[in-house]
Amino acid sequence: MKHYAIIFLMLVCAIPVMAQQQGTQQQEAELSTRYIFGFALSHESSDVYMTDIQQIDSVKTGEKGILLDRDILSTQLKTYCSDKKLPLTTSMVFVATTPKEAAKLQQQVMKAYKKKEVLWHLIKSEDFTFTKPVS
Predict the structure, then answer these.
(1) Residue numbers of the domain that contains 50
(2) Does residue 89 contact residue 42 with C-beta atoms inside 8 Å?
(3) In a domain, 6, yes or no
C-alpha cells in the first residue's frame, strides 16, 4: 500500500512539471512578420470576397514557420462578413512570408475561380483589418 501512495504522489508531482514544460514550448514559438489575405466564398450566391494583402507583425509561428492561431484570423473575416450581412460564407486565410509571395498566392486563388462565373468583391483594409491573435 505504501508503494501505491508513493507512485500516486510521483504522478501528482509530475503533472504540473509536464504542464510547465508544454507552456515553455508554446512560449518558444517564434514571433514573425507574415503577410496575409482573406478569402470568403458565399454558399448562397456566386459572390467571392477577398481582402487586401495585410502585414501582421509579431505573430506566433511554430515548426517550419507555420502560423499558429490561423483559425482565429479566419474567424475574424467570417465575423466581418456576418456583421456586414453578407451572404453565408466560408472564410479562409492565406499566409506568406513576403508581400511578393502573398501577391503570387492571391493571383493563384483568383485564377482558380476565374473559370467559374463569380462576382469578385474586394474588402479594403480601410474597411477590415486583421488583428494579431492573442493566445
Answers:
(1) 30-123
(2) yes
(3) no
